[in-house]
Design brief:
The chain is α+β, with helices and mostly antiparallel strands. The protein is built from 8 helices and 6 strands. This is N-acetyltransferase domain-containing protein.
């Protein structure tokens, strides 16, 4: 059985739209939906199904509009340092436990340890959690740098490591290290500037001075 180019385009559009509905991230949902809508609009135009063309053209414009808003929205970020026994931290970890375990299996933040723990707020929503332990040579070992599923567009971590790096510099920290082998998370680390010195699972970020 063979398929024409038009049939392949129609199937492609259907699959992309279906996949978009499974995206947890609203940004990914919009991008996938945009690609699917454009493909469906082209398909509708080529087969002279003009209602399909009009509806999906409209959907594409809606996706573009909301993506433009997302990328141009002036969001307010803030940092709140907490202790390991903070009730909000406990509830946050309990609520996102299953997702956190995907990237940081066996994570434990013990009150007796010398830890630095930050919540990252985005428009007053706690969207990120960072915890690290100081070690030798002005280095901090990152135990967790986690963003909740709807806010995984790198902005929270970039805000922490670039705009608020004085939080580390003031504590004498000049280098951040993290060990992680999850493929999605290692891609995230590379996107925000972490380097991988060898084929292992340790990544590091040198903090520039002020």
């Amino acid at each position: 059985m063979t398929f024409s180019a038009l049939e392949i385009l129609g199937y492609f559009a259907s699959v992309v739209v279906a996949v978009s509905l499974m995206m947890k991230s609203i940004i990914r949902l919009r991008w996938y939906n945009l690609v699917g809508a454009v493909a469906f609009a082209v398909y509708g135009l080529l087969v002279h199904a003009y209602p399909v063309f009009v509806v999906n053209g409209f959907i594409a414009f809606v996706d573009i509009y909301y993506l433009w808003q997302i990328y141009n929205n002036k969001e307010k970020f803030d940092i709140m340092e907490v202790t390991p026994d903070n009730p909000m931290l406990e509830r946050f970890l309990d609520f996102y436990r299953e997702d956190i375990n995907r990237f940081f299996p066996g994570l434990q933040l013990k009150p007796a340890e010398n830890l630095y723990i930050f919540f990252i707020f985005r428009n007053m929503l706690p969207v990120g959690l960072f915890a690290g332990r100081p070690s030798a040579n002005k280095t901090m070992t990152i135990l967790i740098d986690y963003a909740i599923p709807d806010f995984r567009d790198l902005k929270s971590s970039l805000y922490l490591y670039r705009n608020r790096r004085e939080l580390f510099l003031d504590k004498g920290i000049r280098r951040l290290e993290i060990e992680n082998s999850h493929p999605n998370y290692t891609r995230f680390l590379k996107k925000i500037g972490f380097k991988q010195p060898d084929e292992g699972h340790v990544f590091y970020l040198e903090l520039p001075p002020r």
